[in-house]
Amino acid sequence: MLSLYRNAFGGLSRQVWLLALVMLINRSGTMVVAFLTLYLTQKLHFSITEAGFVMGIYGIGSICGTFMGGRLTDKVGYYPVQFWSLLLGGIVFLILVHVENYFVFCGSVFFLSALGEAYRPANTASIADFSTPETFTRSVSLIRLAINIGWSIGPAIGGFLASRDYTLLFWADGITNVGAAILVFSFLRTARRKKAAKKADAHEISQKDSVYSDRPYLIFLVLTTLYAMAFFQLFTIGPLFYKQVCKLSEMQIGYILGINGLIVAFVEMILIYKIEGKFEKLYLISLGAGLVVINYVVFLLSHDYMWLIVGIIFATFSEIFAMPFMNAFSIERSKPHNRGQYSGLHSMTWSIAQVSAPLIGTQTIAFLGFDTLWFVLGSFGLISSLGFIWMKRLL
């Protein structure tokens, strides 16, 4: 077992491990977003409607940020985009703690979200640059592992800080962002590609090289969005379903959601190591998209606690099979000089899903009930699964 773990994590470059460390620090400090609605209503005394509007602006900012981040990565390179995204984002956090005017807060949140999400396509492009084709998917999985650990640490620390003073959240986020920027400056600045080599790739992207002329990739983005909308509902609407319909306690809900993080942490890297290169990526993505459907079938047929655990296990393996290979497929379709554009649009599909999923979920529940929502989401997963198989045959 130890040898298997050593092999699964071995062969990755020092820069990829550094990127994982930066991501771990960055995501561990992502506390404000988790408690933003409470901060707006409890501390600043905004109405629930106003708080919801602020969260909507945050989502719009994330979509714009991923798009612009991808464009900038192609123009100036991934190093400056990552560095300035982290540094300026940290500074905005430290400024935002002093903002109490509603309209200024809305504008600041948009700017903050756009800066934060600009980091994602630049990060993906840098992973590709510091990996070989054989290690790229495992490199992505390592970054995902850092994100999962960071998301586990962040809310726990955030809850501790928020119980004492909400403003501490902004200071913690700001300081961790600046700290991550210093790491990028210290280590990635010298590891980036030489300027002469960069210039050779940096020619103007022609119409032929544009991501918008790659029709199979645009189909891939639509299918990815459908899958992402189905998957994100597990963590936005799922807890509400567990509480209201299944009558689970908060502790039981926490256990179910915790299973997801544990399986990803202990299984994903080994599984990727064993299957990478042995199967077509689109078939693995299709398998992943299909597995999420099983969770919604469980939701429709049973509210028993043990069956709900079975459902989340299938959903977790859905994530493990689909997401790393989606990133790998996106990079394989791109070229060095348009990689940021491809990564940006791929990241944007997830931002769109994050914004639209709660809206679709809550409105469907309000008018048609939970069962209808599970049927719709299961259909999304099934359509995307079949669509990826069709894409493979098309290509």
From TrEMBL:
The keyword Membrane is annotated on this UniProt entry: yes
Entry-linked CDD domains: MFS_MdtH_MDR_like (cd17329)
Membrane-crossing segments per the record: 16-39, 51-69, 76-96, 168-188, 217-241, 253-273, 282-299, 305-326, 347-367, 373-391
Compartments, record wording: Cell membrane
Residues annotated as domain Major facilitator superfamily (MFS) profile: 15-395
Membrane topology type: Multi-pass membrane protein
Alphabetized InterPro entries for the sequence: MFS, MFS_dom, MFS_trans_sf, MFS_Transporters
Keywords noted in UniProt: Cell membrane, Membrane, Transmembrane, Transmembrane helix, Transport
Pfam families: MFS_1 (PF07690)
Family matches, as PROSITE patterns: MFS (PS50850)
Protein origin, superkingdom: Bacteria
Protein's name in the database: Major facilitator superfamily MFS_1
